[in-house]
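testing teh design pipeline on a random one, pls ignore if ur not involved
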């Protein structure tokens, strides 16, 4: 996607310096800052500190981390140690472990002398695959939006609601939940997107920055406004992303997603989840019982970053001194509340049978 008229991916390989470049997402939407990731420690910090964030992007970043590790030392012992270090950075998003496993399994049979080059090429492939997967998600989601638009009076926008940022900066390009929006907007379908603020890190501001840069009409609303908007017929469809989806279609996403699904169910609003297949965890059935939920720093709930009156970027405390903060980063939406799953292979029901029909070779693994 474009930033100030220039096309960017959320990460890219700098061949001249032989190093990975990323967008430091901690500074968005206030400043656009890119930086190089040069050491394995840098890769760990980038993921933990959420300089890179979003399940697909974390996976691609980890793949480049493995490539760097094998460039430094291509032995089995060092590869396994790098796998462990990177795997510990974020516990919930399954793409991280998927990418790490894919890298290690592909490199293990190769002679050590060939591993560094092969690992770097695999990281490039994983990044390119993510772009194409997200593009295809957009094509399939576009069909759903077209169906809604066809039933509305001429010129009336399709009103979508999204939660958190499942945009191009959470993937390598296009995004998951945003890809259908971009495709619909580019196809000339009138849209209006309700963007949840998504506390505690206000990641809806990233979605607003993305949509605004692309010219998609949108409004930034509080997390608790979604139910009200649905009650008053102002939401035609909810589209969210996911960090891990179980084999039966339970969806783990940013905290607050479950409440949106409940409100959508109560008001008869279609609730769709856009996901690339690497986000499906075929080893897990019951998401509520089995998916580990990351507990992040309480400071994310007690403090907030923003632009100060003098234009500088600052952090302010929003709670009384000494008030403890709790910060579960994700929740799980049971499949019974999900209207459908938008994948790179099409749209299916959030059921074991629905997912298995689209991905028979994975479901039987």
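output:
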């Amino acid at each position: 996607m474009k930033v100030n008229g220039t096309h960017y991916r959320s990460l890219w390989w700098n061949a001249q310096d032989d190093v990975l470049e990323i967008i430091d997402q901690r500074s968005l939407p206030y400043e656009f800052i890119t930086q190089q990731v040069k050491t394995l420690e840098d890769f760990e910090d980038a993921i933990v500190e959420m300089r890179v964030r979003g399940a697909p992007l974390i996976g691609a970043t980890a793949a480049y981390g493995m490539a760097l590790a094998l460039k430094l030392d291509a032995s089995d012992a060092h590869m396994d140690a790098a796998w462990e270090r990177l795997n510990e950075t974020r516990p919930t998003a399954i793409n991280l472990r998927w990418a790490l496993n894919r890298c290690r399994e592909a490199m293990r049979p190769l002679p050590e002398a060939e591993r560094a080059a092969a690992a770097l090429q695999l990281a490039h492939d994983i990044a390119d695959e993510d772009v194409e997967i997200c593009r295809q998600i957009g094509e399939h989601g576009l069909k759903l939006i077209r169906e809604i638009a066809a039933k509305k009076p001429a010129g009336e926008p399709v009103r979508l609601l999204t939660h958190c940022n499942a945009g191009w900066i959470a993937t390598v390009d296009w995004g998951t939940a945003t890809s259908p929006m971009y495709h619909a907007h580019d196809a000339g379908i009138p849209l209006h997107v309700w963007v949840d603020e998504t506390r505690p890190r206000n990641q809806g501001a990233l979605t607003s920055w993305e949509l605004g840069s692309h010219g998609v009409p949108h409004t930034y609303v509080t997390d608790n406004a979604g139910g009200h908007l649905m009650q008053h017929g102002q939401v035609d469809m909810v589209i969210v992303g996911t960090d891990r989806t179980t084999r039966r279609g339970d969806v783990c996403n940013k905290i607050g997603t479950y409440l949106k699904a409940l409100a959508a169910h109560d008001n008869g609003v279609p609730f769709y989840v856009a996901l690339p297949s690497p986000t499906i965890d075929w080893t897990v059935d019951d998401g509520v019982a089995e998916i580990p939920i990351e507990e992040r720093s309480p400071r994310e709930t007690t403090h907030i970053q923003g632009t100060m009156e003098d234009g500088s970027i600052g952090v302010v405390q929003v709670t009384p001194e000494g008030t403890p903060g709790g910060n579960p980063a994700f929740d799980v939406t049971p499949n019974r509340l999900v209207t459908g799953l938008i994948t790179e292979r099409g749209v299916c029901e959030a059921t074991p049978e629905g997912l298995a029909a689209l991905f028979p070779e994975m479901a039987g693994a």
